Amino acid sequence: MTTPTNPEHYALAMRDVTKTYGSGNAQVMALRHATLNIPHGHLVLILGPSGSGKSTFLTIAGGLQTPTSGKITIDGQDISTLSKHELDQLRLAHIGFVLQAHDLVPYLTVEEQFKLVDSVKPKGNLSKTQLNALLQELGVDQLKHTLPSNMSGGQQQRVALARALYTKPSLILADEPTSALDSSAVHTVGTLLQNIAHTQHTTIVVVTHDTRLASLADDVYHMQDGVLSYSLGQYHQ
């Protein structure tokens, strides 16, 4: 595990980050003094059961929630110093989210989901050829004219992943991106994420309870009761 040093050397760095909900007897500490450094171009897993604090970690890492204490930097930028507009722009330009609810627009076909992204971020996205190749690799290229309601959970999951990759973000934060996939699809998605991280220098952080991805990750952390610990050796032997 890398000892915390200069945050500008990392795609994502956390220093003693906590998140507390409620107060008094109802107070719950969802994240307890989390510290980590994630280098550029790494595929990183945060493994843990439901309720362990993984989703809180992810939303705080992406600036969707504010920590109770501690410091978070993305590419060396302390995100607590950013205005709401600057933080929105950072997320739009540099962060791709894959949320557990898939977050696909229900009345748009797969093809239209990407046109919507183009209307918000018209430059710097994958070309049409690159998008077609990505959809084919994920096994959803035949669904271009399909609505989310006519897709399985696994298909929605892969379309949501493709949408996150479409903007060519420098950091991807994914919440349970393989939970609805069989082992063959998990290997396909995991290998794709590994290749994107290593060849495109994209940093990918996956929070999950799915240990099937662990052998493909560069770093593995474990989350339990809000406590983050390094555990790569447990999975790479």
UniProtKB/TrEMBL annotation:
Q: Does the keyword DNA-binding apply?
A: no
Q: Which Gene3D superfamilies match?
A: P-loop containing nucleotide triphosphate hydrolases
Q: Pfam families under this entry?
A: ABC_tran
Q: Which residues cross the membrane?
A: none
Q: Which InterPro entries does this entry report, sorted A to Z?
A: AAA+_ATPase (IPR003593), ABC_transporter-like_ATP-bd (IPR003439), ABC_transporter-like_CS (IPR017871), ABC_transpr_LolD-like (IPR015854), MacB-like_ATP-bd (IPR017911), P-loop_NTPase (IPR027417)
**Main localization of the protein?**
membrane
Sorted alphabetically, which keywords does the UniProt record give?
A: ATP-binding, Cell membrane, Membrane, Nucleotide-binding, Transport
Could you state a single Gene Ontology molecular function term? transmembrane transporter activity
Q: Which residues form the ABC transporter domain?
A: 12-235
**Places the protein is found:** Cell membrane
CC annotations in GO: plasma membrane
The membrane topology term of the UniProt record is: Peripheral membrane protein
Q: How does it associate, per the subunit comment?
A: The complex is composed of two ATP-binding proteins (HrtA), two transmembrane proteins (HrtB) and a solute-binding protein.
What does the UniProt record say this protein does? Part of the ABC transporter complex hrt involved in hemin import. Responsible for energy coupling to the transport system.
The similarity annotation says:
Belongs to the ABC transporter superfamily. HrtA family.
Question: What is the protein's given name?
Answer: Putative hemin import ATP-binding protein HrtA
The organism encoding this protein is: Galliscardovia ingluviei
